[in-house]
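Proteins fold reproducibly. Take a sample protein:
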Amino acid sequence: MCLVAILLILAAAMTVSVSWLTLMHQAASGATITKDQVTVRESATGVTSLLYQLVFWPTGIVWLVWVYKSYANLNHLGTRQTRRPPHWTVFAWLIPFLNLIEPYRVVRELWLRSAGLNATREPDSGERTPRITVWWALFLISGLPALAVRFLGRRGGTAIVELILANQILEAGTAILAILIVRKIASFQHHALARPDLAEAAS
């Protein structure tokens, strides 16, 4: 639900950004811009920014709890073995530089082991997981426009709003894929734990 809330807020924020761009292009073409038009957009920007901040951190906590619990569930499937202890799935997001690649590996392993019912065969590093790869690429790339905005400051003009919009689009894509990943892994594990043989092994 938190990811859905983030997605809805981003959709609203994108609408506001497009509205800003439209107004700025109108001003550049010589149209008269009223103070009320600017005030409305400033208020909308403030509301969407506040809502995003209020939801972002709880969403991050819920995500870490989900990853931890889902990874721990692998101890009840198949071999009951994993490459990492469950608590590492949380630390992987918090350690600088390591968090550029390790969370991807964790979620990828979680996907493959859940899909394979954590069978005896170790997940192959060459196995393709395009949904997770694209999700992680979007997650990393989404931060670049935000860095550019900080670098440009108020000098960017229209480019600032375009970069903000690009960041919002990339984050929305990340959220959509994250929702799909959560649902798929949950489906894998629900199917596995519903099997009588695995249910007995887990008890």
About this structure: The first helix runs from residue 2 to 28.
